[in-house]
């Protein structure tokens, strides 16, 4: 199993530059459009999509599952990615402290992002006939918890005649960006804390 994991890891790393080259080639020559008329372009387009990108996706999923299930594999791979080094007892203690601080700050960031994703704030102007005591601006506060990405209207305004001034309904970035940012945060935060503790 260990040799199989190492082999797939090498294939995963080898396919990364191949994929980058393929996507650059795809972007420059508009291979999808060329594949409609040219047989060779169609073969290259299908091969790149299925053989290279498809296999890379499957290997990525497999390696992700192995990282969750195998302590030995996780220790070997993630230690290299995070530059984790425990050469003596002092570094072992500092690693534990840095990991604890990183975990707590990451949890704080997650709570903050959770609040931003659930809270809704809108300021809008209503027509003069709907104004109360001459005040035509309305502040609307809301809370929405979605457990799925089902398409819904996030508008808190019930009347189409209202004029939107300021509206905040959810995080302005995608979930992929949030996850990628948290991965980067974990690595940078841990290494910064270790570097500071070692001084």
Automatic annotation (TrEMBL):
Q: What is this protein called?
A: Uncharacterized protein
What keywords are annotated for this sequence in UniProt?
Membrane, Transmembrane, Transmembrane helix
Q: For this UniProt entry, which segments traverse the membrane?
A: 7-29, 44-65, 104-124, 173-193
């Amino acid at each position: 199993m260990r040799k199989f994991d190492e082999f797939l890891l090498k294939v995963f790393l080898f396919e990364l530059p191949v994929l980058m080259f393929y996507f650059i080639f795809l972007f420059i020559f508009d291979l999808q459009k060329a594949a409609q008329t040219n047989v060779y372009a169609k073969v290259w387009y299908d091969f790149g999509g299925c053989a290279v990108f498809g296999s890379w996706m499957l290997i990525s999923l497999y390696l992700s599952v192995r990282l969750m299930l195998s302590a030995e594999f996780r220790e070997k791979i993630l230690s290299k990615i995070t530059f984790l080094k425990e050469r003596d007892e002092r570094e072992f203690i500092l690693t534990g402290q840095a990991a604890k601080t990183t975990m707590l700050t990451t949890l704080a960031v997650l709570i903050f992002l959770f609040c931003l994703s659930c809270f809704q704030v809108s300021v809008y102007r209503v027509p003069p006939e709907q104004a109360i005591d001459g005040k035509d601006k309305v502040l609307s506060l809301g809370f929405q918890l979605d457990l799925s990405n089902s398409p819904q209207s996030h508008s808190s305004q019930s009347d189409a005649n209202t004029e939107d001034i300021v509206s905040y309904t959810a995080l302005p970035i995608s979930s992929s960006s949030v996850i990628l940012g948290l991965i980067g945060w974990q690595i940078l935060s841990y290494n910064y804390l270790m570097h500071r503790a070692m001084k």
